[in-house]
Amino acid sequence: MTSETTFSGGRWRxxxxxxxxxxxxxDTSRHRHTLDPDYYDRRVLLxxxxxxxxxxxxxxxxxxxxxxxxxxxxxIELGRGPIRHGYxxxxxxxxxxxxxxxxxxxxxxxxxxxxxxxxxWWVPAPxxxxxxxxxxxxxxxxxxxxxxxxDSWRALESGAWTPSLPASVVSAQIAEVFDAxxxxxxxxxxxxxxxxxxxxxxxxxxxxxxxxxxxxxxxxYGALLPSPLPxxxxxxxxxxxxxxxxxxxxIGTPAPDGIDVGDRVGAALAASGLPTPDPATxxxxxxxxxxxxxxxxxxxxxVDYGKVVAGHVRLGFSATGPVVVAGAFGEVADPGQLAxxxxxxxxxxxxxxxxxxxxxxxxxxxxxxxxxxxxVRFETVEVLERLRPxxxxxxxxxxxxxxxxxxxxxxxxxxLNAQDAYLDCPSREQRxxxxxxxxxxxxxxxxxxxxxxxxxxxxxxxxxxxDGLLPMIGVGDFGMPDQISIPDxxxxxxxxxxxxxxxxxxxxxxxxxxxxxxxxxRWFLPFRDTDGLLTDVTGWVLIxxxxxxxxxxxxxxxxxxxxxxxxxAEMADWLGDAGRAAWARAEHARLVTxxxxxxxxxxxxxxxxxxxxxxxxxxxxxxxxxxxxxxxVPAERLERVKAMLLDRDHTFSEATFLSGDEPERVRRDGEAxxxxxxxxxxxxxxxxxxxxxxxxxxxxxxxxxxVLVESGPTAWREVWEGGxxxxxxCSTPSRDLxxxxxxxxxxxxxxxxxxxxxxxxxxxxxxxTVPSPHGPIRVxxxxxxxxxxxxxxxxxxxxxxxxxxRHDARQVRTSY
Length: 816
Hints:
alpha+beta, 11-stranded mixed β-sheet, 23% helix
């Protein structure tokens, strides 16, 4: 018997349960319900005891909650979830509890949480009479009898946590304020007396036009869906150093809800005199802090993990008296910046304490402020990383060690941002941005044998608005209908669907996503002016964190739309949908003619903007690259466009969110400069250069990432000039060194044939192993033209002059 056969769908056996109080606000209408704005960030404890004569070989379970759960059996954590989900969706997790069971008394314990107010990774579902305001459902089979969520469970809304809200719109982390004295640490273990707790309340989905149901499927979630993701890979990261220093006894009076924790911690750090560490400095490999460390309060503690990490801060310590431990976990340990990072405030009990911050976060430094009486002896100051799996089996190396390191750093950056979705950064926001993730996905497809998240993320983001455009994030506050969107981010999502077509060959998956791709492309049609160009497109047209003017007619946006039309037509043909392919090609053909208006023959480049009938003087890499990828450039212009993209002496970079104003060089002499792409948009630039026959320059261009190594060597910063310290959208070299330098890509959808076209540039050699649906493919190329390929599928070797030679699936030794 397996979890899959035991839980075969249909109606659940378990019922929805919670405490007597949910987040619903009483309303005079039976069928109209709203949430109480004052009921937010609440935690509910649920327990169920049972006895076993013997431990079974298997004890399958499934569980979910609105909004979050942590499941333990006999005090052993088995899982937490669910993954982020759509407005009317909810996923459940399955597992096996047998390893945590024992003969005699056992206890299943669930710590559930209801956010109440939307945040960066969760939005409230519509409410019915009793659902949508906090709920849990679970089923366990630890033997012949089922244990189901019902009113035999005991329930308590815990007062150990003080409800908190995100620090700000952009800094989305929620402070955790926890009083250990208000929660018995053994509440989730056998022997705990829960007689003072109330029975759990069974919840129903009473709504207009339907019979009340207390078991899934039910409104507002519909049929519960199995999680499409495997369990996360869990890694414990230890500190490389722990520094302590006394500080002032009181740094002001803390607010009760934790909103000022970062300010207090920052003030304590400043008063302690501990030096601000340099994030560009990396400890020697194998360095670990000497623990335990005893600290007398009041004091500041500065913990360095030696690299950017992402996960749950975990502390283990003993306290000799009433001590409050306030913490701020972030990318830098600058006192002035700790107000915007992940924080917590823990009121410790005398004696042993164990604390794990519930929400994951990212950073390198943990700053603690101890106040109160007595001392604290820290045994552990860890971070528990819970990231998407990345098994061994993919690799890249080259004769230039710097490029090998750049590949590895990019892959690590994607790791940090690959959780239950591809995130923008694990620290500041944790939002699943619709456009950013095309880079994360591209890297996973060449560097991770587990493609689960690469397949799932485009589906997660497939939450179109009523007008057809995708929101700017997949799930969360910025994805709600009352928010504007980023139109070009939907076009990058179409490129992610195109990646699925090329790499996975999954017809059913791609076909499922094509309707949203079509609606996205059609969303732009009403903005097309009489000359055939998209004009005055509404929303936040971002393009890149670079000074790209977008008002009026934007060359970059028009070109990205052209690439989307081309990608859509190709996929429609592959799926046998000739009608939709013909529609997209007709729209594309009209754009090819219209796009000529951006061309300045004297400048030998496409101008970025036409506004009020006038062409601006601004030239960008963005427009040129997207025009090439969108097949909008006539053949006679290709060499001039390539020359402009390869001319690195006349480009400049300046991130708009750091500078704010139009760069002086654009105002002073736009004719002489080209606006350079920031790291995110370089994936389009590199695609264009490869299409122009300049793949041999990609390795050289990837060395531009050396400037990011200098400021943050363990993960990529957001833009060339700075920003956050772990942005996955900067990781395109980890794709391009494999795809363009070693030259490995699908020759046919699903890697039924592999295409190998090495373009080493100035490298003596480069080699890579990539995953495919048929098994790993290994290629080593040398500057003299020698190539070795181990492939489970036929190989098309492409020589420098474009000649293609087909080889059978086997070990290939030849020249290129």
